[in-house]
Amino acid sequence: MSKSKLSPGDLGAPLSEKEFEELDEFLISDQTSEETLTIEGLDGYLTALAIGPTTVPPSYWLPGVWGPSEDDAPAFETMEQAQHILGLILRNMNGIITSLENDPDGFEPVFGFSRTDDNEREYIDGEAWAFGFMLGLAVVRADWQPLFDSEQGLNWLRPLHLMGSEGLTPEELQLIGTAEQREVLTKQISASVAAIYRYWLPHRQAVHERKLAAAMQRTEPKVGRNDPCPCGSGKKFKKCCGAAATLH
């Protein structure tokens, strides 16, 4: 296992198949609790955080990977192992973001498979993925309210809610009673993710621009009224951007 320290460059590299399997094995190992998300659940969890309206720092959402209580925290053998596993999770998150940015319609969630006792056929099963997604959504549930207030948004969330929410009504439970029904809903999830991603995209871009502007205000030196305007017009600041009535 790698003991190298994390760097921004490393975090941008996608997980190899071997690293993905390593993370999968760790999540279900004796070092984690029974409440820890599986690799399918983690993929759903990170996807909800990636496509939602709010940029949430890892320190806020990472505990939810392990379980609902502090007792669910993993028993890492060393600090190096903890850093390595954290790096794999963050790189997995960045990989999801990159995939959505490049082609939201081509995004492929990590689903599981199931079989029924009386049928040899293997069914695509997104229950664990949808559970992780709804858990990730709940991290900043209030920020998602505009989507819940939209009829179209509720339609997008329907397969995710039915497959991943607890406390379903008897009527809703009848809609996921068979492997065939769950497979049909699972196949609707990719389109829902792409639609939700596009729904929140303008909001995420606006938030990013506001943060970028605030960062520039903090780091750029103050411009004097008689200095050249930083917009490049060639005019003095007081005659250009420094004039309240000037918009350009």
What's this model, at a glance?
This protein has 248 residues and is mainly α.
Would you mind describing this structure in some detail?
The protein is mainly α and 248 residues long. Helices cover 54% and strands 5% of the residues. It has 12 helices and 2 strands, in the order H-H-H-H-H-H-E-E-H-H-H-H-H-H. It has helices at 8-11, 17-27, 39-51, 58-61, 63-66, 79-102, 127-139, 145-148, 151-164, 170-173, 179-186, 189-219, and strands at 112-116, 119-125. The chain has a two-stranded antiparallel sheet. Strand 1 and strand 2 (119-125) form a beta hairpin. Helix 3 crosses helix 12 (189-219). The chain starts with 7 loop residues before the first helix and ends in a 29-residue tail after the last helix. Pfam families: SEC-C (PF02810), UPF0149 (PF03695). InterPro entries: SEC_C_motif, YgfB-like, YgfB-like_sf. This is UPF0149 family protein.
